[in-house]
Design a protein that fits this description.
Layout lengths: L13 H12 L3 H14 L4 E7 L5 E6 L9 H4 L25 H8 L1 E7 L6 E7 L2 E8 L4 E7 L6 H5 L4 H18 L4 E6 L6 E6 L5 H9 L1 H6 E8 L2 E8 L11 E5 L2 E3 L2 H11 L11 E7 L4 E2 L10 E2 L2 H18 L5 H5 L1
Helix pairs in contact: 1-4, 2-6, 6-7, 9-10
Bound molecules: adenosine-5'-diphosphate (ADP) and magnesium ion.
Adenosine-5'-diphosphate binds next to α2 and α4.
Length: 347
């Protein structure tokens, strides 16, 4: 018999939808920082400054000198699936960090978000504020150019998420890691990360505009890395591998210093890290890890970066080619430097 009440289907309101999306896009302060800095880079900024307080929990402020947002577009920037970066006709041909139009509405759903911007050529700036998904009308503001995005009290609207945050120290470290990755992706942009917590104003990371990737890697990973790294340049069937990989003698006890990029985007990908491990297999002890910053580039149609809302995962049309390229490209470079894989030494 049918005593149960038939569940009816309802449309969730925009606030709930944005909070759900925020769960995927903004895992922790570092993911908010990543989204905001990517927006600055997409706006052609040459200088990006990131201020955080309490590991990003109470304040994240990203200031850029990019092209800004037209005052009339400010409400749209906060609305879901609204973007200036793609027109939706070709999701396989993406040249910007952003394209989903989800970051700002998500951040506005889980924190107090204020965007102040002055578009190139505009006579004045405007500011808009959103809190818990409620958008206040845009107002005129004072700003000489570029954009300032301020996110206060992240997750105050979602206490469950707040509880999952780690110590201030580890959230700050994760923010630093996200910025170092983007700094490696864009050597010509100047980056400054400051901790502006109550009672302490200090620079945590700084990279001036660099003329080359090598210079930027030396800034971010240190002169030691630069002096112990091989320059990589290999190609296979439409994929190119460039970057720098350290000699086995400069290995580490963990894999945190492996930076991988696909078409300029920092990614975390098992296949790529697996290939890196495979390349060093014969020259590194099991508990040692290579240090490397490697860039895979290809026609955007050969890789899908729309796998997850955080955009850090990718799917290659042919992963086997990319794996082979990494393994052979690195082994070749290592062999050239006298570090031969045991199999090669034998023959
Ligand atoms: P997406 O980056 O995927 O387009 P976002 O929600 O991150 O989505 O941003 C929405 C829109 O707001 C962007 O498409 C862009 O037009 C604008 N925008 C956001 N941040 C900036 C910025 N720092 N400078 C200029 N425009 C920005
Ligand atoms: Mg974005």
């Amino acid at each position: 018999d049918h005593h149960m009440i038939l569940p009816r289907i309802r449309q969730l309101d925009e606030g709930a939808v944005n909070r759900i999306a925020a769960g995927e896009v903004v895992e922790r302060p570092a993911s908010a920082v990543k989204e905001l800095v990517e927006n600055a880079l997409d706006a052609q900024a040459t200088r990006v400054t990131i201020d955080i307080a309490d590991g990003g929990r109470t304040l994240i402020r990203v200031t850029d000198d990019g092209h800004g947002i037209d005052a009339n577009d400010l409400p749209l920037a906060l609305s879901r699936h609204a973007t200036s970066k793609i027109d939706g006709s070709d999701l396989l041909n993406i040249h910007s960090f952003g394209f989903r139009g989800e970051a700002l509405p998500s951040l506005g759903a889980v924190g107090r978000l204020t965007i102040t911007s002055r578009a190139t050529g505009a006579s004045e700036a405007a500011t808009i504020h959103v809190n818990g998904g409620r958008i206040a009308p845009a107002r005129p503001a004072a700003l000489r150019g570029g954009t300032v995005v301020e996110l206060r009290d992240l997750f105050h609207a979602t206490p469950a998420r707040l509880k999952f945050l780690k110590s201030e120290r580890s959230e700050t470290m994760a923010v630093g890691d996200a910025i170092r990755r983007l700094a490696m992706a864009e050597p010509s942009v100047a980056f400054t990360l400051r901790d502006v917590s109550e009672g302490g104003d200090r620079v945590l990371f700084r990279a001036d505009a660099c003329a080359s990737l090598a210079d930027r890697l030396a800034t971010v990973l240190g002169r030691d890395f630069a002096e112990n790294a091989l320059s990589i340049d290999a190609e296979r069937e439409g994929f190119r591998l460039t970057g720098h990989a350290a000699l086995p003698t400069y290995s580490r006890g963990n894999a945190v210093h492996q930076y991988l990029f696909v078409n300029g985007r920092p990614v975390r990908d098992r296949m790529l890290t697996g290939a890196l491990r495979g390349a060093y297999m014969d020259v590194l002890a099991r508990d040692r890890h290579a240090v490397a910053a490697l860039f895979v580039t290809c026609d955007p149609v050969l890789v899908d970066c729309n796998v997850h809302p955080a955009k850090t995962e990718v799917r290659f049309r042919d992963a086997g080619i990319v794996r082979g390229l990494i393994v052979s490209g690195l082994r070749h470079a290592l062999a050239g430097a006298g570090h031969r894989a045991s199999t090669t030494v034998a023959d």
